[in-house]
Batch of 2 targets.
Target 1
Amino acid sequence: MTSEKNKILIAALSQFIPLALLRSGQKHPPFLPFYHVVNDTVPEHINSYEVRSTTNFRKELDYLLKYFLPVDLETIVNKPKKNMMHLSFDDGLEECYTTIAPILKEKGIPATFFVSPGFVDNKTLFHRFKRAILEERGVLIKSGRKFFAHETPELDQLAKSNNISFAQYLSDHQPYMSLSQIKELQADGFTIGAHSIDHAEFWLLPYSEQFRQIEESMNWLVSNINPDIKAFSFPFTDDGISKALFEEVKSKKLVDVCFGTAGLKYDTIPFNLQRIPMERKQKWDAQKIVHFEYFYYFVRSLVAKNTVAR
């Protein structure tokens, strides 16, 4: 793996190379950027990634539109080209409905919203959001400890011991979209995909639980949304997902397309596409990320490392 220091160096070098040159002479995957939220104030439950303001989000979209053709999911799945872009948004947060979708409609940009059924209608709260609330309220020190899904009972006990109610937080703040809002997005022409049941770390799950998370979330998607394309995005990352799991979900017709988060790369699984994270801890803007991804793709191509192997 490339160290963080080397990535920063690569990013710095890439800024001196014109994007047209970075994108020339090679076959590239389509550009698939993804975000989570856009908000002019940072919600208390989010501290794991950078939150774009509406002004900065608009600026980034305008930049991307200079260099990429925005297309819908069907085009990306069936007729992808290297100059194409398809935006997506993970976790089904309420800003997708209130803030992001109106901006996308204004600019004529198609997108896919990936939702986790366990969170829809604000039924429960993502474990990383629980951690963030406890950190913001001084119950936990911001030590960098991530907390994983299986440690949720520890977070719940800490909240209870400090008279913090996550159920009340959900009721008061409504951080997630409702099913009716999700259906409205679909009616407006956006596509909806699944993002597992409850956003657990797949690399920590046994095969049977990985499959269950995909199967149940996709069944929920078909039952409630019935999309033309059955899309699934892996929570956090698809790193370490076995070829056998891809083969099983495909053979059982649970998915048409899957998405990972490895950046500008191809994948040995032809129906698994790799997306580009935009809300990076380095606080890079869209221009820096685009230059980095294309230069990094070129560097990796020199050692035949620009395809995810299984």
Target 2
Amino acid sequence: MSSTQLNDAVAKLGRLSESRAERVVSLIDDLAELEALETTADLAAARTALGEVDAPLPWDHVKAKLDAQFGFSQPAS
């Protein structure tokens, strides 16, 4: 959000009735909390994924799987 958009939003908030402004601020607080929870969940998932110690797959195997998945033909060896 640009500073102009933020200034416009604050100005609109100032024109709302007090009860409506409180509801808007409450929704913003709820959104911030949801984003924090999502970030926490994403970080936990990333840490779990980083902790998995599978052996790396050779590129030719990965490429062959992707080519098969997306219907690309394999070059003759």
